[in-house]
């Protein structure tokens, strides 16, 4: 029991808070896209990934999302952007994953224009009727 308590205290001591701000402009077919859901996630190798924050693009397609988390090392953040760009089936959305570079941790990652009409390796159809 003492060993378990010592391990928990050591884990708390070694964990540190890391943060990230991600900003950009969502674009489909050269047009800015308002009202898209943006989720800032943090990858956890052992358990379910953590949702750090959720925002929507504004009326000009801009987004700015901030999140932080305690981890043993640094956080491993990524974005999910939910959109209908390139969707062929009525009622479906695409969830596209975008990685955040480790060099941007504890700073700002400016994605500038996020071109949703360019297919990414990690995409999934969601909310299909």
Automatic annotation (TrEMBL):
Keywords: Secreted, Signal. Residues 1-15 form the signal peptide. GO terms for cellular component: cell surface; extracellular region. The keyword Lipid metabolism does not apply. It is found in: Secreted. The keyword Secreted applies. Belongs to the nematode transthyretin-like family. PANTHER family: TRANSTHYRETIN-LIKE FAMILY PROTEIN (PTHR21700:SF30), TRANSTHYRETIN-LIKE FAMILY PROTEIN-RELATED (PTHR21700). This is Transthyretin-like family protein. It comes from Mesorhabditis spiculigera. The lineage of its organism: Eukaryota, Metazoa, Ecdysozoa, Nematoda, Chromadorea.
């Amino acid at each position: 029991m003492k060993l378990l308590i010592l391990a928990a205290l050591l884990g708390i001591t070694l964990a540190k808070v890391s943060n990230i701000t991600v900003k950009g402009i969502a674009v489909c077919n050269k047009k800015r896209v308002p009202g898209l859901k943006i989720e800032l996630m943090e990858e956890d190798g052992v358990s379910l990934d953590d949702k750090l924050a959720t925002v929507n693009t504004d009326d000009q397609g801009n987004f700015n999302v901030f999140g932080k988390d305690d981890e043993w090392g640094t956080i491993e953040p990524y974005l999910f952007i939910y959109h209908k760009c390139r969707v062929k089936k009525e009622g479906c959305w695409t969830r596209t994953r975008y990685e955040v570079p480790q060099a941007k941790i504890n700073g700002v990652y400016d994605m500038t224009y996020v071109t949703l009409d360019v297919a990414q390796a990690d995409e999934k159809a969601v909310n299909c009727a």
